[in-house]
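Async update (no meeting this week)

Hi team, since we skipped the sync, here's where things stand on the single-chain job. The sequence we agreed to prioritize is pasted below, unchanged from the tracker. I ran it this morning and attached the output directly underneath so nobody has to dig for it. Comments welcome in thread, and please keep replies under the output.
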Amino acid sequence: MTTPRVFIIRHGETEWSLNGRHTGTSDIPLTANGEKRIVATGNALVGNDRLIVPSNLAHIYVSPRTRAQKTLELLNLGCKEKLPWQSSRSATDIRTNAHVEVTPLIREWDYGDYEGLTSSTIREQRAERGEGSWDIWRDGCPGGESPEDVTRRCDELIKEIRERFHNQAIGKKVGEGEACDVLIVAHGHILRSFAGRWVKKNIADNPSLILEAGGVGTLSYEHHSIDEPAILLGGAFMVDVVETAGASK
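Output:
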């Protein structure tokens, strides 16, 4: 029986992700090592006999930030159409008909006044000003977004995915329906929030999830039921072997 999935992929390593700096609206490029690791991830996890089967993808959502868009390029999914930010199609082999959509719904959490700062710096500055403790999940960011703001964005996208791609496919015999998997390429905090909301957790309580730079997670459903969303623990991977970046598929 068909059980649709959503693959969530955090963009590859950047200098700011290495240093723990909050990167929301800033457009920071991938490091050379970050690019190599994403290529390795694509080699390991994308293919007809791999976790992400390109022909099963119905839709691809990507953040407006170039670090997420570069990550999608390096995964080498073989998109039939040119990517929205490119002047021509770059794929040499076509493996998926999935439409690629750039959406602000999956942009990173807006850190506002805390953009570019590390958590330790934020706490030090708050202490100097006589302010209390800080937790992004509970408090959000001054000048930026609150947990409620982020929840609304995530819930809107989850609703869209289920209505457009999953409702009509779930529970059918394999092969009966069209492609129904969805892939999202975005950022650490927003994807952790998205996964938390997928299983109906209040992100203000901290979803207690980790997704490292270049990491891949899988969301799905239990018992072939649209009303039982779940996190597929067996489908959460991160490739960290740079040497395999040139391996053949």
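Quick observations from my side:
Residues 243-249 have pLDDT under 50 and may be disordered.
The first strand starts at residue 6 and ends at 10.
Reply here if anything looks off.
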